[in-house]
Amino acid sequence: xxxxxxxxxxxxxxxxxxxxxxxxxxxxxxxxxxxxxxxxxxxxxxxxxxxxxxxxxxxxxxxxxxxxxxxxxxxxxxxxxxxxxxxxxxxxxxxxxxxxxxxxxxxxxxxxxxxxxxxxxxxxxxxxxxxxxxxxxxxxxxxxxxxxxxxxxxxxxxxxxxxxxxxxxxxxxxxxxxxxxxxxxxxxxxxxxxxxxxxxxxxxxxxxxxxxxxxxxxxxxxxxxxxxxxxxxxxxxxxxxxxxxxxxxxxxx
Amino acid sequence: xxxxxxxxxxxxxxxxxxxxxxxxxxxxxxxxxxxxxxxxxxxxxxxxxxxxxxxxxxxxxxxxxxxxxxxxxxxxxxxxxxxxxxxxxxxxxxxxxxxxxxxxxxxxxxxxxxxxxxxxxxxxxxxxxxxxxxxxxxxxxxxxxxxxxxxxxxxxxxxxxxxxxxxxxxxxxxxxxxxxxxxxxxxxxxxxxxxxxxxxxxxxxxxxxxxxxxxxxxxxxxxxxxxxxxxxxxxxxxxxxxxxxxxxxxxxx
DNA sequence: GGTTGCTTGATACGACTGTATCAATGATGC
DNA sequence: GCATCATTGATACAGTCGTATCAAGCAACC
Lengths: 253, 253
Fold this sequence. Notes:
Two copies of one chain form a homodimer. Chain A is built from eleven helices and no strands. Chain A has helices spanning 30-43, 57-82, 89-96, 100-107, 110-134, 142-151, 158-174, 178-185, 190-202, 210-229, 235-249. The first copy, chain A, binds a DNA duplex through residues 19-27, 30-31, 33-38, 40-41, 54, 60, 88-90, 98-102, 104-106, 109-110. Chains A, B: Keywords: DNA-binding, Repressor, Transcription, Transcription regulation.
């Protein structure tokens, strides 16, 4: 297999400590390696146009977060399609189109990867939800806003469907992983309060408690979405149920 | 290690085919093995009192289902405490106090084990729920019956807490495992209909749709129970919310 | 006595997992 | 030319996983 590498340093001579662990050596010393590098750099000619300007300092940090995000997206994709237990380091690396070592380097351990991916997922979901809210026709129609907030938890399209699957998978993990539970508890508190506020502003029916209504509404829509996920209910049925309850809570349509 | 076993058959002589796979042989043939067995049986003396009566034919089947159940319980326990991904064949065997081979023999494969354990879990939960319903003070108090049905999905005690954890873990698995999804879909349909029927009988407030109320109630109480599981809500808060909605739906307390 | 059947014990295999180790690659500053 | 830095490539290791294989245990029938 490795015929020519068995002899010695590619630049000078032959020491080449034969370490059995890790990547097999090709040079006898760092300086010989530098020599070889400069030779290659010279043969490649000068870089296209802006060699001295170099990359601005922000580029490093940006490239880093982009890579982390790219890897996290692979975690989401695998978790949505085949479950979190299929998201091994190697599968994630392959899904992101990077090497195993890169995943190790950027997240330290598998646990770190899972926690970071959940963090990024929460941010991403918030971003998307806000974008959809901003795209509403009439932001003054509070009932429509309320419906949009609740619809965010239903598998209406492939994106939300995947998000819900990943969310549920992570939830189950969090039951036996305190670090993941932490992320859940510190992230998604204000949903019920938002819904309760909307109900209050939109004019709830007399005698209704917006807070209690919001509690059942949010947890209920999540449960209904889970039912849709594995085919126990149809999406149309869930939307009808939801409409019924919105009509009930906000009679002044 | 195996000093004396290297020579030959314990009864007659020496052939002893040296198979490298599986359990190392000790006898040269089945008949020699039978001889050794009969010798041991003779030395042990006659069994206590009822040797010829033998075991009735049903004992076999009963012993089998008992063993299956014992192993399934180990699956539930592990899944509740450390998640379904911790339920390896070896862990389950250890938890049930049997050998790995016994788990293999009675369930064929890990997938078969998981599916059977889920089946048995559904039966067990039904049994326990019915028992709790039968123990109600006044079976005519329909509101109390309704409350008991819904409370079955809340982690009120260690048993229900574990059941909910296992249930959720299995649900997530079922999203990527059709055989498990099958068990879910064919088992737990009538809950909402039961709740709707109770609401109807108990006298719902005018203008309310018992079916839609039941849908949100059941899915909502499941979601609230999940919130309790990882500490996002307190049990008292959930019960208050539930009481509020029961009062709303059934005003004629 | 020998044979057959169901059940269990005692290994073994190959695949995969998370992680660790060592070196090469570029780039920058001296 | 040399040292140093963050990043990536190329392995290797120890362990666990599900499963397969062969034989022993035990009871029943012939």
